[in-house]
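User: Quick sanity check before I run a bigger batch. Here is a single chain. Can you write out its predicted 3D structure?
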Amino acid sequence: MIAAACSRVLDRALAHDPEFSRLRNAGRSTLACVLTAALNVAWTLQHHEDITLAAPGTLFAMIAPLFLRESRLSGWLVSLFAMAFWACASFAASALIASQPELRYAGLLLVVFIGMLCQPLGPRAVGSALLALVAFYLGLYLHPSHDKLLAMLAVMASAPVVVAFVGRIVLPMAPRDGEWRAFARALYHGASSARARAGDAVRGAGRLCARLRQPRLADVAALARGHRHLAWRTAALATISALLAMLAGSELSEDRSMWAVISTFVVFLGTHSREDTLARVAKRLTGTLAGAAVSALLVIAFPHEAGILMAAMALSVFGWAYFILHAYARGVFFITLLVGLVYGQLGFAIVPLAKLRIEEVVAGCLISVAVAVLLMPSAAARAAKAKVNAEVEVEASLAAE
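Assistant: Done. Predicted structure follows.
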């Protein structure tokens, strides 16, 4: 009977989470985040530095594993270092311009626009965009000095190493049978035929230069199609919403206005119609209200129980990573819970902070709703447009034949 019950539970779990991919993703994010936080906090304590130096690397280790989808090692590493580069560059840029209001606002809007524009390019682009926005927020909020900035970037460099260790060794995405043997064979053959490859590279460069001197219409058309695939409308709407959220959030709190901006960004991320946006807003508000309430209760109930609160933080990271990509309201609940627990551990008054977070998120969501209702197409209009475009393409292909 026990075996049958366990089998039914396993079948149901596999039905909701095929091959336990969500469970593995959540495990990677949680383990990478915990290991990075432990290493970075230990380093800061050993060198008598501020514990906030550990924040950028810890956030990177928490977010990056969710967007590392490639099974091949080469593509996986490219995605990892691309996300690390944009996170570090965004953090450094925001820290350098934090004291200049005009530049910080312009830089924030630029990050929102570019991040939203490139979202159709795949998980690597979405992960880079989200990390860049979060890193920009940290740079503005912490506004470290030049020496502190260099120290933070140095500490942050350990995060990609930990993510690679967890994602490729401890909890690999796919079986690694033959992966390193294949790499060794490729390295050997590459070294043995280096001269031939160099000749091919020179000839290839010559052909490329010839093509660049005589551009073809097909190349121009392909480039235009690539530009059309970018999310221009969504990027413009998200940037407008971010600007309004920035102004509204600053009236509530200058230091926490980024909560309103981030709300507009994640609300428009992946949405294509006003119905999608309204559904995302409802889920974000529900998760935020519940998460803020539970975080306040936990901090008040266990004010001196650091172990319990740290365990709740790890559980929050796991819950966020497990739910955020397929059950958005639950994911928002866990990330809101995590934020409240972190600020509570840092000594902030949790009830006013939870109230302010709710106000900032509500402001960002209301602005997103207004922009979506006024400027975004409905789902029916998008379906009709897609049908017309498909008919035009069919007619064009028939005419060409």
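The chain has two domains: 20-172, 231-401.

User: Great, the batch can go ahead then.
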